[in-house]
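Researcher: For the annotation table, I need structure tokens for Pleckstrin-2. Please keep the output clean. Sequence:
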Amino acid sequence: MEDDEGGVLKEGFLVKRGHIVHNWKVRWFILRQNTLLYYKLEGGRKVTPPKGRILLDGCTITCPCLDYENRPLLIKLKTRTSTEYFLEACSREERDAWAFEITGAIHAGQPGKVQQLHILKNSFKLPPHISLNLIVNKMHDSSGGIRPSPNMEQGSTYKKTFIGSSLVDWLISNSFAASRLEAVTLASVLMEENFLRPVGARSMGAIRSGDLAEQFLDDSTALYTFAESYKKKISSKEEINLSTVELSGPVVKQGYLAKQGHKRKNWKVRRFVLRKDPAFLHYYDPSKEENRPVGGFSLRGSLVSALEDNGVPTGVKGNVQGNLFKVITKDDTHYYIQASSKAERSEWIEAIKQLT
């Protein structure tokens, strides 16, 4: 089988943009030394042979990639023949881990390049020809700037804000900083000079830390705003379809998992987000643009357990087996979920158990 060339460097779910029709679909990706393979999923398992392969020799990688405003966690690959691939991860950590491994595979023949990846420049000075005003003006630019939008933190909605990690992405993409560490330092300086303001508990808390590099949070839960547009607004009732309380807790864990549907019993990959205080597990459809859950449930009084690995467990439809677990909610709804490895299943079960 051609799937067996060289060892697997990394594997897992990513959301891929289609070539002909630009729709987004979840695929199972396997990274090898010179190729990135991707597979379709049916009934919780990958369909062989691979649906496609991306040859990494001569490939260029862009990360962060800001081509899609509603998909901030993208990696863009451009092959030697100029074919572009857009791949979306479920978290910034996961995106950066994929980008790191893919970059390593692209430069596998040049150890010096790989070594450079490991070295973070600690000394950061703004180039003499770039002023903070220039950066801020570019941030406000209607086409290539940062677009503030309403964001929620702990039940309050803040108008015209942006998240810390998206500012870091933007500074790197616009070549104002070469690494995340540099971008964080630069963002802290922008804050010190009163161009930016922290909004909400998470980012306000970080200001009190003494170290400049830790004052600005490269984090998807920390909110910031342009200093002159700072107005707090609690969202009106009609804007709250999902109880804001459900989504107000800090994120404990997130990732792609397969879930069995309640009515048609078909398996679909969803991005699961586990929050605490209050404890909720929500799931999102990764093929959709809008960032609101398609479902979720409270974990109070729920039970979570691993299912048998040999044979198809009761309640599971189709030939789906391995790495399955089940959550039974307080009102006796059964959720059947499949992780992509035993280790991942244990991590999820442990994390959920701590919140039940």
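Researcher: And a one-line annotation?
Model: The chain has a mean pLDDT of 82.
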